[in-house]
Give the backbone structure.
Amino acid sequence: MFDMSVELPAKIGDLAQEVYSDGAKETLRETSKIGVDAAKTLRLALAPLQFTAMLQDRVAMYFKRAADKASPENRVSPAPSLALPILEKLRYQEDGDLLTDIYVELLSASFDKSRTGDAHPAFLTIISQLSPDEIRLISSLAGSEPKNYFGRVASEWTQSSEGIIGHLNSSVIEPVEIDWSLVVNPDEFMWPAHLQVYIGHLHSLGLIEYTNDLKYLSGRGLNHGKECWAVTLTEFGSLFHRACVKGAPLESFAVTHQDKI
């Protein structure tokens, strides 16, 4: 077992072994099996929290959760330059929050030698700017052809699948059926009225781009640029999805009718 007082600030020094919480001590023991550098990184993250057991436990829990997501044969010590800022963010995150899982997923990529190249340092800043709905949109666009979305500006009919179907059927003889694998479904979001804002924001971050691929809407009499647009992930956005979103349990945060009440 390693000496947990090593490399702690001088004022902590002799008290280190007493002031670590039980949860932090156990995670430090487990982390030491990954390597000395991983143990040093966690000790550095815990150093400012020596007298707050709850925060120690929280940071240690997230560190262990990220490490456990990497398979033992691929597990390496994360780079402190990325791991420490992520753990700083996680100090203020609650368990059960979608953004918490996104941070943990990015930290997990830094533990996995097969994924370390995906962990772009810019992603940490990007995560802090995203809402849960924007993460849902990124997930919806991943691994698919460009998707259409309705409304250059928010209108009442664009805010639900029922409203979209009703609007499309109001101007055609034959009923319109929508393939939702090719169209952004507003029912997937907590605040569908902000879909256009989400798209503009993700575009400004370089995560999505507009495209003229409107195969689904061709011949349906819709006004491109007014009623419908198409978007897709950029290469940078696809990398962000792979590093931060793909492995996160988004199904645990599915929007239900009850959520919106």
